[in-house]
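Protocol step 4 of 6: structure prediction from sequence.
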Amino acid sequence: MPKVGMPDIRKPQLVQATMAVIERVGLHAASIALISREAGVSTGIINHYFGGKHGLLEETMRAILRQHSITVTQALAKLPKNDHQARINAIVNANFLGFQAESQVVKTWLAFWTYSMHDEQLHRLQRVNEKRLLSHLKIELNSLLPRHRANQVAHGIAALIDGIWLRGALNPAGINAEQARLLINDYLDIQLAQHAPMTN
């Protein structure tokens, strides 16, 4: 976490520089020297406020997660509370469109996923993000399915989001948001049909 007193204007500048350097050379080669040069600041500023590369990466991921949360919240606020499938689609879209689909963000996410497997603090951030996604999904699914099934389907949708996102991130053509939406809605329709009331 950045230390108190760091000018707010510096934080987005350094976060953007971190993502730009990761996109260009990868996480392991993204040195403090390269990032500071990209941001137009001294290496001492990064070391002072973030304690080095690890702290800066953590702040970069926090910034991405904050933006993702804002995107989801704003999208849901525009939709009727009883249109649960549209709200699920909004949650899905937030993972495949806009900021989250930008090349710099995608490559930073990939680096973060890899790094978080071996770092307790970054792993905790990943878990927070996962729990937030599942919570959003379960809120909507609880109105459509029995609670135990809603939990299972939420995990299924989350797995599809992660899998489709990862395949798209590794594809030179990028992430296909429309295909992701179709696949996830197909899965959801099947789950909902299994629990639809029987009619004569």
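Step 5 (inspection) to follow. Residues 2 and 50 are 5 Å apart (CA to CA).
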